[in-house]
Each structure stands twice: as C-alpha cells, then as structure tokens.
From TrEMBL:
Subcellular location: Cell membrane; Membrane
Keyword annotations from UniProtKB, A to Z: Cell membrane, Membrane, Transmembrane, Transmembrane helix
Chain spans, region Disordered: 246-266
CDD domains referenced in this protein's UniProt entry, alphabetically: SURF1 (cd06662)
Name of protein: SURF1-like protein
UniProt keyword Membrane, yes or no: yes
Domain of life: Bacteria
Membrane topology, as annotated: Multi-pass membrane protein
Protease keyword on record: no
Amino acid sequence: MYRFLLSRQWVILTLIALVLIPTMVELGFWQFHRHERRVAQNALIADNLRAKPAAVEELTSPGHTVPRADYWRTVTATGVFDTAHEVVVRRRTNADDRIGVLVLTPLVLADGRVVLVNRGWIPAAPDQKAYPEVPPAPKGEVTVTGRLKADETTGASGIKDLRGLPDRQVMLINSEQQSQLLDREVLGGYVEQTAPEPAGGTPELIPEPDHDSIGAHMAYAVQWWLFTAGVPVGWVVLVRREKRDREAAARTGDIPETSEPATAAV
C-alpha cells in the first residue's frame, strides 16, 4: 500500500523533510535567544540609566575594559577640555541617519589623567580630507555628565580601523589609541556626553539608547517553529494524497496498486 515511499522521489522528499525539521527548530531557538538577549539588554540599559550618577574614576581606570554590566552607567567627570588634541570620528550617523562625524575631546582631570568625551555629532566637511568646523568646547573647568561606554574595536563594532587618515581623524573611539597619541594616561572607555547642553545645540548630543523595543525576534522564533510543525503535516498530507491517487488509478486500471518500477529485460 505504501511501497511508493521506497521510490527515489519519495526517499529524497522524506530526507529533505528530515533535514528541514531540526534546521528550522535550531533557527527558532536562535531567534528566541536573540529575543532573550534583547530583553536582557533593555533591562540593563534601563537599570543603568536610572542608577545614581557615579564619578567616572570610580568605574574605570587607565587600561580598564569597561564590562557590559557598566555600559550606559551615568557618570560625571570634572576637568578641563584639551581641544588641542581633539579628534573627529568619521562616518557616524545622527538621530536622522545623516552621515557625519563625532567630536571626541580629551577631558583632563584634576590628577592629570584623561577621559575621552564624545561631545556629539556634527556634519562632516565637504572635503573628507579636511578637518570640519567643530563647535568650541567650554573653556575652564567643567563638569560633564554622560553615559559610560566601552572602547570601540573592529571585532565588536565591525568598523575597519583604516590607516593613513587625515590628521586628527579616526575611525574608532579607543582609549588605548588616544593614550599613545596623547602620551598620557587615559581612562578606559569613554563618556557619551548628555550634559551640559552645548551652546546652539551643536554638536548634537547622542540620544538615549532605545530600551523599549524588543524587535520581532520572538515572532520569528514562533514562525520557524510553526514551519517545523508544518513539515511533517505536509508530508502526511502528500502521502495520503499519493495513496488516494494510486488507489483511484488502480481501480480504473491505469496503474496497478501494487505495481513496481519496471526492470530492463536481460
């Protein structure tokens, strides 16, 4: 009755179904784990943004790698901006997805150490080799409030650290690189400025990270699992249809129900 399942066509179809089932189950779990990571990250961002501000020196130090648990922590830093060693970070977008640069200015603390401050976004110069017109940083001692971020690396960001760039232009915000350029101790990570508000609204401060949206990963996971369930159901439907068609053909005499593939005469 079901000997047709041993035919080449049905063996291949069955093998494809057997491969699809675990593959789609795994894809579903992959999306589910992405959903879990997104939920955990949203909770971390929300908790750290609500946390009481801490002095930046309490959370990082020269050579320190900022752990994920401290990402987006609100910190304060008091010092004097060193605009002579200010650089811009190329190919960055603002809240409206316009491409420009970030203004990265060293802030010299009272003990002589430096913390990097991302003062915000400005449009790039018309000539990419030229240094853009950067709004001046506040003079004298200033207290900056911002979100603590980890050093950027190519592995984590996907941004290539290009060489041979024009003077005072970089691709990554990295305290180790800037420490070598400044020949001073630089605290690990950097501060994404949120206050004080810049005069005239420029540079544009970086907006607060999104910690409300969870994306569609859970929906994709359920979708993959529904596809998984549909494979055996579809296989059974096709088998029953094939059996019904063969029985009908056998009754009319077109194809015997127990027919086997013909063998070549010897």
